[in-house]
Design goal:
By secondary structure, the chain is of the alpha+beta class. 39% of the residues lie in helices and 14% in strands. The chain folds into 2 domains: 102 residues, Hypothetical Cytosolic Protein, Chain: A (2-Layer Sandwich), CATH 3.30.1230.10; 163 residues, Ribosomal protein L30/S12 (60s Ribosomal Protein L30, Chain: A), CATH 3.30.1330. The chain has a 4-stranded antiparallel beta sheet. Strands 7-12-8-11 form a 4-stranded mixed beta sheet. It has a two-stranded antiparallel sheet with strand order 2-3. α2 runs antiparallel to α4, α4 runs antiparallel to α9 and α5 packs parallel to α6.
């Protein structure tokens, strides 16, 4: 009679030493399209596992340079890095790309800035697609009307817009989508997490000129995305960008939502910025 099983590994018959770890590189562009999964990848710097949608894929160019593949579609083996400035700086300093690709990889010192620029361009390009698809609402009065009648997927405010107009927009968000209040005006929150999820995130990482250029106007101060799959996908791209710049200004969020429902990457960006100043 075989000895009794003493552990989960004994029961499954799997030797932990034989389990296949997540490799540092993939064998080619991940499968995309309907039903595509979002598998976890291992960061070549931190060695932590994250969904690939939260990471940046890099490939080697013909001349041996590490190239960011934001859409994860370029041919060849790919190495994955967590989508933060610190992680990419670490990959450059530690020679992580050369180790992962098992070949000399050229990495410019400004690679983090290049990736941030590419991410910002990708986010703005997708916002232009949203406008053409009728998913984007522009203009002060039009956005206020959308806030009154629906729950937008997100509200977009130009980083250099007038404080007066932004304050009015945030005040309307608090009034329409904020928690219920008692007779004394105090917030009545039974489920803080549920209340936070009611607030449309307020995006503030682009100037009026940047938004205008992306949307075919001279300047854009106020905009919002309608609820739906497009808004969800766009927020995912913003999460990657938030590893490089402050996307969700904390003091712009309705007060009851602060600290709840906002991605943590903004906090790490603020901490990094503080160390450099």
């Amino acid at each position: 009679m075989p000895p009794p099983a003493n552990s989960h590994d004994d029961l499954t018959g799997i030797d932990p030493a034989l389990e296949t770890p997540i490799p540092e590189t993939d064998g080619g562009p991940p499968r995309v399209g309907k039903g595509a999964r979002d598998p976890e990848r291992r960061c070549i710097v931190t060695m932590e596992h994250h969904p690939q949608s939260e990471m940046i894929r890099f490939v080697l160019s013909p001349d041996g340079g590490a190239v960011a593949d934001l859409a994860a579609r370029l041919p060849g083996r790919g190495a994955w890095v967590t989508s933060t400035r610190d992680a990419i700086e670490g990959a450059v300093k530690k020679g992580a790309f050369s180790r992962a690709f098992k070949a000399q990889a050229k990495t410019p010192p400004d690679l983090p800035a290049q990736v941030e620029h590419l991410l910002a361009k990708r986010v703005l390009d997708q916002l232009g697609l949203a406008k053409r698809a009728g998913e984007l609402i522009l203009g002060f009065e039009q956005v206020r009307e959308a806030i009154r009648n629906t729950t937008p997927g997100c509200v977009i405010e130009a980083s250099d817009g007038a404080e007066d107009g932004r304050s009015k927009m945030l005040g309307l968000l608090r009034a329409v989508h904020g928690p219920e209040r008692d007779g004394s005006g105090n917030a009545v929150v039974q489920d803080e997490q549920a209340e936070n999820q009611r607030f449309p995130p307020v995006i503030g990482c682009f100037s009026a000129d940047e938004l205008g250029m992306a949307l075919g106007r001279e300047r854009v101060i106020h905009a919002c995305l309608k609820q739906g799959r497009f808004a969800q996908g766009w927020m995912g791209e913003l999460k990657r960008l938030s590893g490089f710049r402050r996307v969700w200004p904390e003091d712009w969020q309705p007060s009851s939502a602060r600290g709840g429902g906002r991605p943590e990457a903004d906090a790490s960006h603020d901490a990094a910025a503080g160390q450099k100043n």
